[in-house]
Amino acid sequence: MRIDVLTLFPDMVKPVIQQSIVGRAMYEEKLTINVIDFRDYSENKHSKVDDYPFGGGAGMVLRVEPVVRALRAIDGYEKARKIIMTPQGVVHHQEQAKRLSNEDHLIILCGHYEGFDERIRDYFDEEISIGDFVLTGGEVAALVVIESVIRLIPGILNKDASHEEDSFSDGLLEYPQYTRPREYEGKRVPDVLLSGHHQAIDDWRKEQALKRTKVRRKDLYDHYMKKQKNAGK
What we know:
The chain is an alpha/beta fold.
C-alpha cells in the first residue's frame, strides 16, 4: 500500500510513522508513506495557504489552490482513495478500516485553522473523523487512521500476532488477557486459562467478551445480539 499525507506540519507525522509496526512495514518495503507539505504548493510570495473567510467570522480558512496543486502533483492521484480528516466526517470504525485496507493507494489531507474552503471537498472521495471533538489539526487523526488500516493488511503484523481477536473485529470488545505471574497481590489468573482445555478457554473468552461489551458498550452489544438473532444463531 502507498499512503500520501498532505499536511502543513510534516514534523508531526514523520517521527511517528518511523516507529512500531508502521516503521517496520516501511523498512520491510511492505508500505510506503510520503509526507507532503502542501505549503510548498502555494504561489503566494509568503507561502500563505489560508485567508479570511468570505462573509466574515473568526479564524482563517485553507485556500483551495495549494491543496489541489499538491494533490495533482501526486503520481496516480486520480485512482487513489482521497480522504479529508475533519470533525464533520464519518466517525472512524473497524469496518471502515477494513475497507480502506483493501485500497492500493490512500491520500489523506490534514486540515488546520478554522476549516477548508468548501470547494476542496469536491476533489476528495470521503471525510473521516476520529470522534465528536475538535483537534488543532488533522495530523493526529490521520495517524490514527493509518495505523488502524495498515495493521489489517496481510503480512504487516508478526506471524504470531493477529488482528482477528482485537476489540471490534467481531463486533465485540476483546476479552481479558493475562500473563505471568499467575498471582499478584492476591489477584489470580482465572483457572480456565491454565487448564490447557482449548474449547473451555474459547468459551470463557467469548463469554467474557460478551459481558465486557454489555457493560462498557451496550450499543455494540445490542447490535451484535441483533445480528446473531437475524443470522439464526
